[in-house]
Specification:
This protein is an alpha+beta fold and about 120 residues long. It has a single domain, classed as hpI Integrase, Chain A (Orthogonal Bundle). It has 4 helices and 5 strands; from the N terminus they run H-H-E-E-E-H-E-E-H. The strands form 2 sheets. A 3-stranded antiparallel β-sheet has the order 1-2-3, with no helix packed on it. A hairpin with a 3-residue loop joins strand 1 and strand 2.
Length: about 120
């Protein structure tokens, strides 16, 4: 699941040209799957002066490495409910017997972001 989460974070970040803070604040209820594309609502951004939010459309690809397909697979494997208001990309912590997840609401420093992805 860790590898799938990393693939979903990086592919969504690349396809949507998101800053890390924007990726960390995406919630499942900000994501809308359509037949030909994915629509992601970004509630606030560095360049959004009035904090109105903005939508980013990401089109589907006809390959095995489609950004939308990777994100959809991550949501299914992680059993994330699309109506949830929790963070979409939750850091994983591992124990000796199982993998559990905990909530990370905001991450501001690059060093913390690095541990979030690794």
């Amino acid at each position: 699941m860790k590898d799938l989460r990393i693939a979903a974070v990086t592919s969504l970040g690349f396809a949507g040209v998101f800053r890390f803070n924007e990726l960390a604040n995406i919630q499942p209820n900000h994501i809308f799957f359509h037949e030909e594309f994915l629509k992601v609502y970004v509630p606030k951004s560095k360049t959004d002066v009035y904090r109105d939010g903005n939508y980013v459309n990401i089109s589907k690809l006809e390959s095995n490495y489609c950004h939308v397909a990777v994100l959809r697979r991550y949501i299914q494997v992680a059993d994330i409910e699309l109506s949830s208001q929790l963070a979409l990309f939750r850091p994983l912590t591992t124990t000796t017997t199982t993998t559990t997840s905990f909530i990370c609401m905001t991450i501001n420093a690059y060093s913390v972001a690095k541990t979030f992805v690794i």
